């Protein structure tokens, strides 16, 4: 049986809705409330799967009640039953599974019941689906073995933006300011809502592990399970401690995962700040680790760290020089030559510049000794 609660301040509507629910044979009315505050108090103990809510309520309107119920249980399905249709947009934002106008027609009510049953079955079938998200260089998302096909560019960008702010609510206006600044407010809101709908549809089969929630005019992406390289790098940087060598390897691996940067191939202006933050934190940790190895005269590890550092910051002259100098001292001229060629090419293509005179002089010195 599917556990449900009903909230309506008019007792005859409360009883009518409850009777329709009981007649389905698939639902159990676990609670009936005329007061929304009492419904809020009881919901933790009841743990309903579905809430049938009238929008025009005393003490607290139905939209606000739904927000608070979803804060307690984001997987709960919401059905609004109301005499007014002007709340449809707000219901959409909350991802209500249905919106039924009074007086309730039994045929329409039964269609909603089937929708809820199908949704619950779908969630059960996809509990084992694996989610994989890659954010470095370009955004790539797979569910099971299938890649997500976005179809709408702005839906993909919105997903990436909310992923960057995962677990936090971002106000509509802030999203529009960063993602849709070129549009008039009304058009921008329409594009945002269309993108939200697309994301919810794309991930509807894995709502148990990924949800796009709405509350207080803000959207929040919640990811309960799955692999995400961005989360992994954040965790590595959070766990890193200079005094704990056991954290060193994870930082090196994170710098490899980071590659050419956070969403760099997508061309999102708003992602550049996050890319820079991650890059600076990785560099700071790598430099500390490199210095520790260097002080202990561990040349192999020092070289490996310097290569990682120069890949993240090829414009940093001192580390490139230090690496080539170590190659010179260890008589590894071929490695020095290869690094110089890589540096020359990278600086020209990415920064429209060339290696410093000091590095050029060292390269010439090494070349003459080949």
Describe this structure in words.
This protein has 370 residues and is α/β, with parallel strands linked by helices. It folds into three domains: 2-125, Response regulator (Rossmann fold); 131-225, Orthogonal Bundle (Arc Repressor Mutant, subunit A), CATH 1.10.10; 238-368, Serine Threonine Protein Phosphatase 5, Tetratricopeptide repeat (Alpha Horseshoe). The protein has 15 helices and twelve strands. The strands form three sheets. It has a five-stranded parallel sheet with strand order 2-1-3-4-5, sandwiched between helices. InterPro entries: AfsR-DnrI-RedD_regulator, BTAD, CheY-like_superfamily, Sig_transdc_resp-reg_C-effctor, Sig_transdc_resp-reg_receiver, TPR-like_helical_dom_sf, WH-like_DNA-bd_sf. GO terms for molecular function: DNA binding. One of its GO terms (biological process) is regulation of DNA-templated transcription. This is Stage 0 sporulation protein A homolog.
Which features characterize this protein?
370 residues, alpha/beta, Rossmann fold, Arc Repressor Mutant, subunit A, five-stranded parallel β-sheet, four-stranded mixed β-sheet, 14% strand
CATH topology of the largest domain: Serine Threonine Protein Phosphatase 5, Tetratricopeptide repeat
Q: Give the percentage of residues in beta strands.
A: 5-15%
Q: Kindly state the mean pLDDT as a whole number?
A: 90
Overall strand count: 12
Question: What separation lies between the terminal Cα atoms?
Answer: 80 Å
The CATH class label of the largest domain is Mainly Alpha
Share of helix among residues? 40-55%
In what order do the strands lie side by side in the largest sheet?
2-1-3-4-5
User: What is the domain total for the residues?
Assistant: 3
Rounded Rg: 28 Å
* Tertiary shape: elongated
Order of helices and strands: EHEHEHEHEHEEEHEHHEEEHHHHHHH
Unreliable stretches, pLDDT < 50, 5 or more residues?
none
SS element count, helices: 15
Largest sheet: 5 strands, parallel
Architecture per CATH nomenclature, i.e. the level-2 architecture of the largest domain? Alpha Horseshoe
Structural class assignment:
alpha/beta
GO molecular function: DNA binding
Keywords: DNA-binding, Phosphoprotein
Modified residues (4-aspartylphosphate): 54
GO biological process, one term: phosphorelay signal transduction system
């Amino acid at each position: 049986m599917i556990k449900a609660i009903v909230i309506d301040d008019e007792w005859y509507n409360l009883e009518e809705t409850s009777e329709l629910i009981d007649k389905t044979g698939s639902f159990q009315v676990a609670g009936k409330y005329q007061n929304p505050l009492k419904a809020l108090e009881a919901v933790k103990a009841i743990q309903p799967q579905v809430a049938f809510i009238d929008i025009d309520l005393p003490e607290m309107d139905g939209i606000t009640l739904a927000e608070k119920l979803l804060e307690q249980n984001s997987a709960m399905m919401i059905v609004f039953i109301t005499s007014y249709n002007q709340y449809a947009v707000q219901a959409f934002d909350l991802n209500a599974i249905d919106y039924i106008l009074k007086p309730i027609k039994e045929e329409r009510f039964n269609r909603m019941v089937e929708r809820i049953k199908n949704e619950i079955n779908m969630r059960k079938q996809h509990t084992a689906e694996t989610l994989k998200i890659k954010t470095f260089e370009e955004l790539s998302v797979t569910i099971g073995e299938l890649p997500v096909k976005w179809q709408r560019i702005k839906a993909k960008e919105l997903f990436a933006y909310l992923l960057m702010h995962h677990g936090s609510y971002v106000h509509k206006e802030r999203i529009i300011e960063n993602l849709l600044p070129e549009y008039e407010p009304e058009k921008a809101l329409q594009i945002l809502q269309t993108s939200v709908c697309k994301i919810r549809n794309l991930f509807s089969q894995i709502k148990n592990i990924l949800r796009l929630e709405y509350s207080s005019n803000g959207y929040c992406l919640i990811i309960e399970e799955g692999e995400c390289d961005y989360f992994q790098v954040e965790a590595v940087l959070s766990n890193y401690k200079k005094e704990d060598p056991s954290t060193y390897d994870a930082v090196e691996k994170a710098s490899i995962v980071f590659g050419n940067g956070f969403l760099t191939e997508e061309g999102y202006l708003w992602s550049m700040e996050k890319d820079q933050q991650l890059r600076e934190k990785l560099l700071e940790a790598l430099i500390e680790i490199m210095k520790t190895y260097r002080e202990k005269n561990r040349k192999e590890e020092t070289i490996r760290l310097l290569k990682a550092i120069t890949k993240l910051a090829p414009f940093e002259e001192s580390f490139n020089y230090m690496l080539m100098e170590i190659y010179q001292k260890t008589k590894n001229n071929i490695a020095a030559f290869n690094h110089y060629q890589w540096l020359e090419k990278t600086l020209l293509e990415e920064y429209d510049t060339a290696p410093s005179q000091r590095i050029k002089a060292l390269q010439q010195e090494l070349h003459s000794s080949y």
